Predict the structure.
Amino acid sequence: MLCQECKEREATVHVTKIINNRKTEMHLCEYCARQRDDFIQIPSFSVNDLIAGLMDFSHSQPAPEKAALAKCAACGMEYSQFKKMGRLGCQKCYEYFGRELGPVLRRIQGSSQHAGKVPRQAGSHLLRKKQLARWKTELKRAVELEAYERAAELRDKIKALEQALDSEGGGKR
Amino acid sequence: MSWINETGPDRDVVMSSRVRIARNIADIPFPSIMQPQHAVQVAEKVRSCLPDLKSGSRFDFMYMRDVPAIERQILVEKHLASQDLMKRYEQSALIMDSREKITVMINEEDHIRMHCILPGFQLNPAWEQMNKVDDIIEQKVEYAYHEQLGYLTCCPTNVGTGMRASVMMHLPALTINKQMNLILQTISKIGLTARGIYGEGSEALGNIYQISNQITLGPSEEDIISNMIIACRQIMEKERIARKAVRKTGGIQFDDAVWRAFGILRNARVLELKEFMAYISQMRMGVSLGLIPGFSLEDVDGLMTAGQPAGVMRKTGRIMEGTELDAARADVIRKAIEELEKSKEKNI
Ligand SMILES: [Zn+2]
Ligand SMILES: [Zn+2]
């Protein structure tokens, strides 16, 4: 059902008003419902509100001003925008809003670790590329800390994985 | 042909089983903010998988802007596409197989949303078919995937498996016995949720509910499916017991209510959607208990779809509302029942 007022967005708020013993029902979108103050609102459950609520909750601990300023450098989505829409702009948003999303995911989903399907083709390639990146960071740290034994070990692993990825990459993509 | 006319296991309670998986293509903005050129890029990428998809049935690709508005609405009411896809018709597309069981929505909330819908209680087969389609698309398309978070989706409520498994259940006897609230509370404790599928708000028109998993991150696809199967089996058994009890306690009154419902559907000249759904529900329960010989559950479900607004408007070829629509609905249903009766007579 479309919103009676703007006839554009989905009506998610169903409100009832009683004037002179006459009942009037209205079906509005969240936006239009917020614009009015003459109705008693019976809010229906909405994913957007749920996410917004959870975000607020999880922010009561870390500095909220800072979170509000968070922005995805890949697509330009601002954190405040995400909070309003409940929709992310791109896959990188998950990284840029990682700190805010973590607690939300645990609360909505009860977990923050995927245990299901892994893309067969791209997946193993992708996962190993990520592994490679992780080893490289670790190698840098190991060198800084002068943990040369660990560094040598990592260097060998990186080399082997890079070779494996190279030989696959030629055929695949 | 579609799931509506086909028999399926446990069809007396479960009308259909559906599995949806959401995917996004790597390094392209999500549909929430995508530009028209991104939309085309996504659509054409998925379209390129079409030749690999064919297996027993034909797959067609269509841009939604090329599909007439009434046809788009029919797709929604047949549960082959979503309202959301139609709202974005300027950038969205749909791949559909000729059996109307598998559809791939392109540029809905996510780049790719694949659905498999099967008659009756068939969650596992639906998941298996989806998994196969996913494997095929994955060969040509790199997905947005995160080691820890799984498949990345536009809304964080779908992240992980990106999977929503759902069954459409007809639960008139549990509703009459006011058991639904308790059931809803109970299933929410194991990460499942239920809502009325026709109509808005909390009211479930025709006593039809959609039960689905709420959690997508953490449990594997197989875990989610088996959870759903266990919960739905229990609800199914309770509904069957409740139907028998309702009939037994109702006695002739129960049979009378079923036959009256049929009589009204068979003869009415004006049928409002809400009352239509109430009578269809009554008739469906009767048919499941062996009343109204000659009519199958598939026949009733076919009538239910035909009586939805777009179903009626397609038959008449006009956009209508109010009494005009309700009168047209009564006509469509009356004629459909007459035709069913005629075809049964021939068979005898
Ligand atoms: Zn509005
Ligand atoms: Zn982003």
